[in-house]
């Protein structure tokens, strides 16, 4: 999961005591690709000194990609006030950029051509990264 390497800067800025991470995906938690991406994320965090349950927490929401469901899950995660939110699909990122302009959003599993217009790095002024 090479995309995670570019996230190191944002991950390093998590609170020194407890990093709060939220993850929204439009894919099922049982999807093999999703499982591989989550495992890669957890490994990357570990390499940066963040261990889930010790000094960071990850709150997951898994959806079907349906627009209203994604917005509901996005609002739910934003209400938790995480330090950063990871969007794993186009539908997830589209919902997240509609709901927050202050929490950094990292995204994977997207191509630039499918990136929501509001999520383009030039338009989010540092909120979204990929």
Structural overview:
- With 130 residues, this protein is α/β, with parallel strands linked by helices.
- The protein has one domain (2-7, 25-129): Rossmann fold, CATH 3.40.50.
- 37% of the residues lie in helices and 18% in strands.
- The protein is built from five helices and five strands, in the order H-E-H-E-H-E-H-E-H-E.
- It has helices at 8-12, 32-47, 67-79, 90-99, 121-124, and strands at residues 19-25, 56-62, 84-87, 105-107, 128-129.
- The chain has a five-stranded parallel sheet, covered by helices on one side.
- Helix 3 (67-79) crosses helix 4.
- It is globular.
- It starts with 7 loop residues before the first helix and ends with a strand.
Question: Could you give a short description of this structure?
Answer:
With 130 residues, this protein is of the alpha/beta class.
Keywords for this structure?
130 residues; alpha/beta; Rossmann fold; five-stranded parallel beta sheet; 5 helices; 5 strands; 37% helix; disordered N terminus
């Amino acid at each position: 999961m090479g995309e995670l390497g570019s996230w190191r800067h944002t991950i390093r800025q998590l609170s020194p005591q407890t990093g709060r991470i939220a993850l929204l995906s439009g894919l099922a938690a049982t999807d093999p690709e999703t499982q591989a991406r989550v495992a890669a994320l957890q490994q990357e965090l570990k390499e940066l000194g963040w261990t889930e349950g010790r000094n960071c927490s990850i709150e997951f929401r898994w959806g079907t990609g349906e627009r209203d469901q994604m917005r509901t899950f996005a609002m739910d995660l934003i209400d938790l006030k995480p330090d950063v939110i990871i969007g794993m699909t186009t539908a997830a990122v589209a919902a997240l950029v509609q709901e927050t302009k202050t929490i950094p959003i990292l995204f994977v599993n997207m191509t630039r051509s499918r990136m929501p217009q509001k999520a383009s790095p030039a338009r989010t002024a540092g909120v979204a990264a990929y």
